[in-house]
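Ops channel
N.P.: pipeline sanity check, posting one input/output pair.
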């Protein structure tokens, strides 16, 4: 089931005996776990009826599960990082006959936990909590899935993520319009735990205002490397040497690697080239977004930058990035100073583009 189906169960007071929380969205899993606590443990002995174990031996976990609750109807047992759900995932098609036999007789292989899932007491809610994705080829995973307990917490799509950001700011009494929410997600990433920290910081910084502005985000948020490189590339492609060069030096002093920055700069010029080609063919913003792999508001920024170039000029800039990377990796060019040299050449190319007519 997805997390929405899980929350519907909480709302309907239909809490199962067994769950596995898995997926890349760690904040979503922690929030769901907290909601489960609040729904399940309501009495004065709440703390006494919750057990949190990290990769426990099977015998210890079973003993805890068999313990009766105190002054509550049910106990909550949380198992983090179980060895029965970790390890390198393997495709079911590659499972050997030996593994299939083990699935039928897990106790013979030292797994007494999987068969126990069929006889969990009614006084229990057992939650396995996996970091990231659990290993779906493991016997315990297959048993939990068979019993309908797997809850997936995948990253929110763009629309739901923007609504989540706006709701977070609303909790601080601040309005955040769509462009502001888009800017935050693009600048700080899509991981909810990080976004929650950033919204709290930005809300404190914007205290006294009615609404959050993009300037507030840029002033106080911890910006992702990808965003900072996009900002750098934006300034380079606009020919703004006075802003681009100090920003590049700041990133290098901060420990960013030249080859990594070069790769991201190369990606930016590829996106500019695709944008210019698609603009010339009258493609819609949605089509450009799909082709370049960026959200719609970023497409608008790419379009503004691409308008200052012809297709041939952008091809030349893109080739400069590719050639620089090749020369470094083939030993023809020292890595030290290579990024600085490339940025200066790209800025020079932009100034030439500004002096020549183009389509």
């Amino acid at each position: 089931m997805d997390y929405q189906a899980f929350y519907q169960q909480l709302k309907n007071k239909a809490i199962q005996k067994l769950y596995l929380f898995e997926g890349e969205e760690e904040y979503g899993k922690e929030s769901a776990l907290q909601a489960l606590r609040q729904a399940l443990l309501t009495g004065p002995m709440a703390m006494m009826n919750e057990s949190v174990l990290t990769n426990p031996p099977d015998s210890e976990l079973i003993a805890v599960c068999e313990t009766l609750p105190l002054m509550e109807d049910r106990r909550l047992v949380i198992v983090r990082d179980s060895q029965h759900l970790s390890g390198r995932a393997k495709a079911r098609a590659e499972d050997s006959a030996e593994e299939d036999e083990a699935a039928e007789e897990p106790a013979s292989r030292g797994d007494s936990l999987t068969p126990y899932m069929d006889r969990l007491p009614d006084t229990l809610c057992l939650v396995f909590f996996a970091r990231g994705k659990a290993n779906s080829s493991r016997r315990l995973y297959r048993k939990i899935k068979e019993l309908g307990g797997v809850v997936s917490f995948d990253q929110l799509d763009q629309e739901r993520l923007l609504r989540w950001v706006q709701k977070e700011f609303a909790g601080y009494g601040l309005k955040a319009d769509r462009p502001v929410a888009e800017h935050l997600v693009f600048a700080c990433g899509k991981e909810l735990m990080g976004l929650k920290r950033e919204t709290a910081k930005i809300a404190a910084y914007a205290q006294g205002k009615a609404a959050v502005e993009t300037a507030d985000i840029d002033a106080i948020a911890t910006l992702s490397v990808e965003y900072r490189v996009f900002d750098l590339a934006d300034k380079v492609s606009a020919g703004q040497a006075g802003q681009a060069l100090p920003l590049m030096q700041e990133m290098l002093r901060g420990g960013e690697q030249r080859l990594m920055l070069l790769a991201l700069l190369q990606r930016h010029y590829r996106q500019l080239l695709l944008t210019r080609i698609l603009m010339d063919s009258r493609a819609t913003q949605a089509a450009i977004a799909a082709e370049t792999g960026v959200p719609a508001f970023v497409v608008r920024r790419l379009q503004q930058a691409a308008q200052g170039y012809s297709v041939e000029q952008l091809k030349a800039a893109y080739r400069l990035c590719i050639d620089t990377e090749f020369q470094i990796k083939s030993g023809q060019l020292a890595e030290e100073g290579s990024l600085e040299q490339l940025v200066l050449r790209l800025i020079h190319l932009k100034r030439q583009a500004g002096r020549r007519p183009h389509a």
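N.P.: looks fine end to end. The chain has three domains: 3-152, 158-220, 229-355.
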